[in-house]
Amino acid sequence: MAELDQSRLPASDPHSGVVPILDFGSQTAQLIARRVREAGVYAVLVHPSISADALRAMHPKGIILSGGPSSVYDEGAPTMDAGVLRLGVPVLGICYGMQIACRHLGATVERAADREFGRASLTVHDRRGLFHAVPAQSTVWMSHGDQISGLAGAGLEATASTATCPYAAVRSADGLFHGVQFHPEVTHTPHGSDMIRNFLYEICGCSGGWRMAGFAEHQAKKIRERVGDSRVVCGLSGGVDSSVAAALIHRAVGDRLTCVFVDNGLLRKNERDLVEATFRDHFRIDLRVIDASAAFLRDLEGVEDPQEKRRRIGHRFIEVFKRAASDLPDARFLAQGTLYPDVIESGHGHAGHSANIKLHHNVGGLPEELGFELIEPLRDLFKDEVRNLGEVLGVPGQIVWRHPFPGPGLAVRVLGAVTPERLAVLRDCDEILLEEIIAAELYRKTSQVFAVLLPIRSVGVMGDGRTYENVVAVRAVESQDFMTADWARIPFDVLARISNRIINEVRGVNRVVYDISSKPPSTIEWE
Questions:
Q1: Which of 45, 52, 41 shows the shortest CA–CA distance to 8?
Q2: How far is CA 83 from CA 52, 89, 91, in A?
């Protein structure tokens, strides 16, 4: 198991305490954190090997143990400090988290004779505490092949069961440990949010005082203390993440922040103008704009492989950023708008089991290249929380609610060779697409909408002549956290207008297709 870096542990929030979540590698660990925060309590994910002493130092109101893909009896399976269960703090174990805790307490965990995957009917035997106001018969979502098979000597009692799982929920005699075999964090458990709120308020005694305004002040204070009299450099992309990070750091250190915006020639239409107006005119931030578009496009000439595109773009960006940073001799810190899903999908999850899906996120090597110390004030937030924070900080709505944009820009939406001509075609298509989505009042109802220029041509008929021109794909998804996404059901009449306008108004396009794949198995971006 990876060594725990204690310096990465966030301080507890002073407004309402903190509920640490030991992340055993569950795909829904971040969803547990979302549910706790939605209930008004600050939650943070930590490595499962965190010591009881380190948890005690965080002054937790409660502790949650997440699910995970392992079996507790497998060699090398993630485990935990048994002292966590002796801190005198309420603990909620979910699925694997329940099993590992119950095993430490002396219960038996075995492979189930009947595995449970999907919806199950839960019978609640004790409606106090965790199940307060929860119906005696309730639907829950199960996903397990192991389960508790005996409680003898463990000091535990069953509080709920299913037809095949007699210990679907348990409680310790002192009421400090509660375990559930099902997943209360998912929407398929209709009363799951009630159970989580019961744990937080009925059992842990949380006050529910955590709000984004408090988070902003807490983070600004931490940034001020860390930065001191030094200067912070922030690389602006024009997206919501880097913009909100810049606004938060500006609140903390004022004119000791310098933002650098690199025009790489791969931007959306009018993006540079929007960034300059927002950060120079609205926030009065020291903004340095560098036009390096010619160099970036020269680097991409003839390159079709998406990973090679990213590599060249990243290499050139570091060179450009180095030159900009050399003009700021007192700069010691580099700020990045890294979010929690970025960390997970880049293979930096707390439990050390996450696959490296994304290679173009901010968690790469730029700080080491430049000798900066890294500041990532949004690292433990989800996208919707970042938007909320942006509103608290006064970031204009046209940026706060802007859909995500990939780090390599349009280079990974122009499939195949990247040329100024193909970029121009894509920009025009993308502008029309967004105009129609906004006009149909679908922009805030979708999470990401964009056009992709495909590396193929198709036969068409325009007027009395035959054409052989470009194909454009439209991609629209709905997602809460961008870890998973479903394709958006855009009304047919809206899709018809989009297709009609693109084909009629953008020279060189004669076919528009709509992408109806979800993540997983697909990714949101095409490259």
A1: 45
A2: 5, 11, 12
Whether residue 407 lies inside any domain: the answer is no
| Final residue in a domain of this structure, among 185, 203, 221 | 203
Q: Which entry of 15, 47, 95, 271 is annotated as an active-site residue?
A: 95
H helical segments located in 257-353: 271-276, 293-300, 306-325, 340-345
pLDDT tens for 435-485 read 999 999 999 999 999 999 999 999 887 776 788 899 999 999 998 767 788
Q: Residue 37: which of 189, 203, 215 has the closest Cα?
A: 215
Is 405 contained in some domain? no
Beta bridge partners of 453: 414, 472
CA distance 9 to 66: 17
Pairing of strands 509-514, 42-46: unpaired
Residues 154 and 20 in one domain: yes
Asked if 188 is an active-site residue, the reply is no
Question: Do residues 334 and 233 make contact, with C-beta atoms less than 8 angstroms apart?
Answer: yes
Determine the 3-state secondary structure of 458 from DSSP. strand
Q: Domain limits at 333?
A: 212-400
Q: Are residues 83 and 161 in the same domain?
A: yes
72-121 pLDDT, tens digit each: 888 888 999 999 999 999 999 999 999 999 999 999 888 877 777 788 99
* 183 assigned to active site: yes
Structural domains in the chain (count): 3
CATH of residue 15's domain is: 3.40.50.880
Gyration radius of the chain's alpha carbons: 25
Q: Where is 290: in which H helix or E strand?
A: strand 286-291
Alpha helices (H) in 394-525, listed in sequence order: 397-400, 420-439, 492-505
Residue from 185, 436, 525, 527 carrying the catalytic annotation: 185
Measured CA to CA, the distance from residue 3 to residue 222 in angstroms comes to: 25
Element (H, E) at 180: strand 177-180
Size of the chain, expressed as the number of residues it contains: 527
Query: In the annotation, is 95 catalytic?
Result: yes
Q: Which entry of 47, 104, 178, 183 is annotated as an active-site residue?
A: 183
Q: Which of 171, 203, 235 is the last residue of a domain?
A: 203
